[in-house]
Design goal:
Blueprint (H helix, E strand, L loop, with lengths): L1 H19 L2 H20 L7 H35 L1 H6 L5 H33 L8 H25 L3 H22 L23 H23 L4 H16 L1 H6 L6 H9 L9 H4 L6 H27 L5
Length: 326
């Protein structure tokens, strides 16, 4: 048992490290964060709802970016290693296939959670920047842009002076600089241009921290998509894996409309409605317009996601056991 724990930890750690060294994953993360930072500037037809549009667009980018990252990272970590023969070299040693598969998913899940953390921090700052229509709060936008620049500069300097890998160091520095940016932004108060006497009070009073539960829901959803991608990566390459994950994602968003309306009187529709993950449960943007997303709901959604994770990983384990590794 102790040996399996050590094997699991080693494989999961190496998978996470190798994933952070993938240039595509860094490019995707930087693009996501940079585009979220630019949303308050590029969205012009706001109709008095700039804050909501920037917030919802940022959450949508989080969702789609997670789908792309999960599919690519899963194939790079599993099908890529199977094709290159790295997996057979590991499995030729006394390493159980179940341990290997679950460790691969755990390493990918860690990277997905780090991606979600970076995107959430960027969303908080960008939403603050667009808090009022036709006005940019630079205590939100400024630290966000500075975080991107400093992450690139620090990782480039570290690569130049210490020869450490630029990609993985930049991924790590981006998380650090975004965290510092949020901490700095929390100290600055905001005065409304429409209500001059209204000033936010207290630390982080100007930050839209109610976005964190909504982002946590999306993080759970992309973990489910990552589990599906890992299961598919035992047999498929990047393009078919991404295509199937995208199809499941779209059907899951529309499952209430496609299957839910007929579920009461149609057994097949009821079965498909029960089997298909309903990604609407993980979309909290509508709730933010009302009373917000309570953490109790996040806990229930986490239980729902864990059931799908268990099922998808079980399917992946069966596929891994029956696969011939050369």
């Amino acid at each position: 048992m102790r040996l399996q724990v050590k094997q699991f930890s080693a494989i999961a750690g190496m998978t996470a490290l190798e994933a952070t060294r993938q240039p595509f994953l860094l490019l995707l993360t930087l693009t996501n964060v940079a585009f979220i930072a630019l949303l308050p500037f590029v969205i012009t037809h706001v109709l008095g709802e700039s804050n909501r549009i920037v917030r919802d667009s940022s959450l949508a980018l989080h969702f789609v970016g997670g789908l792309l990252m999960g599919s690519y990272a899963s194939c790079a970590a599993l099908s890529g290693e199977i094709r290159r023969g790295t997996a057979s070299a590991i499995l030729s040693k006394p390493v159980d296939r179940v341990v290997f598969f679950l460790a691969k998913f755990t390493g990918i899940a860690v990277v997905m959670l780090l991606f979600s953390a970076a995107t959430t921090l960027a969303t908080v700052l960008s939403t603050r920047a667009a808090k009022e229509s036709f006005y940019i709060d630079w205590w939100g936008a400024g630290p966000l842009f500075a975080a991107i620049v400093f992450a690139l500069a620090l990782s480039a300097a570290e690569n130049f002076f210490t020869k450490r890998p630029f990609v993985s160091r930049c991924f790590g520095w981006l998380l650090v600089t975004l965290s510092v940016a949020v901490l700095v932004s929390g100290f600055a108060q905001t005065q409304s241009i429409y209500e001059p006497g209204k000033i936010t009070s207290g630390y982080a009073g100007a930050l839209p921290l109610e976005l964190i539960p909504a982002s946590a829901l999306i993080a759970l959803a992309i973990l489910v998509l990552a589990a599906l991608a890992v299961a598919l990566a035992t047999r498929l390459e990047v393009v078919p894996t991404l295509s199937i994950c995208s199809a499941v994602f779209m059907i899951g968003l529309m499952s209430d409309y496609i299957f839910g309306r007929s579920a009461a009187g149609n057994k097949l529709a009821a079965l498909l409605y029960a089997v298909t993950p309903n990604f609407q449960h993980f979309w909290g943007a509508d709730a933010l317009n009302a009373s917000g997303v309570p953490w109790s709901y996040v806990a229930h959604a986490a239980a729902y996601a864990m059931l799908y994770l268990a099922g998808l990983l079980g399917i992946g384990i069966v596929a891994m056991r029956g696969m011939e590794v050369r």
